[in-house]
## 1
Amino acid sequence: MKVVELKKEMDAQFARVEERFAQIDGRFAQIDDRFARVDEQLAELRREMKAGDEALREEIRAEGETTRRRFEIVAEQMRSDQHVVLDKIIAVANDFARFQVGYAAEHANFARVLLEHDARLNALERKP
């Protein structure tokens, strides 16, 4: 084989290698484009998540305020109910105290009558 023929064959093989490198470069360019799109999508996803995060935080904050207001209303109602119950307990205690006073007077009267009855029985038993 002559040098000219060898050079021609080597040039042809180098041309094929360069063509193959061009194809590989094209594939890398496609991959780079895909990565660029993925990066854009990730950036968009981050923006959406951040916006969603802020919205979620605001919703939680608003729900906390609503819950606090409702709790304050319930607590105030419980205080009001407590005052009603305490008023009823005081009224019942006052009624019981009046009942005790009346009962004590009746008991004293009954004890006096019983003593008088006992005294009459003793007097009757002494008479022969």
Note: The CA atoms of residues 8 and 14 lie 10 Å apart.
## 2
Amino acid sequence: MACVFLPAVAPFPVPFKPFVIAQGVFQVPLGTFVVGTFVGRGCLFFFEGFLGARYGAAAKQFVMNQKLVSLAIALALVVLFFLIRRVPIFRGEGHSQRD
């Protein structure tokens, strides 16, 4: 689900359509795709709406100035997800048991 959720919450400089196409190519299950996209885009639009309602035009300027920070956070989340899924020590396989 993270492979669908993370691109869906990525800020707008990150194009979403290539991720949608890739999910089709890699045959992501329809339920996972729909739920991940709905939740991810819902979070993104809620956050942007909240900032707009709370701070007005200043929020737009803030978001536009923080593009690199947003991209760095999204990249860090992808790397963290990869490490958790692939590195054996994070999955509990790197420990040996002693009798």
Note: The helical segments are 2-9, 17-25, 30-55, 57-65, 67-86.
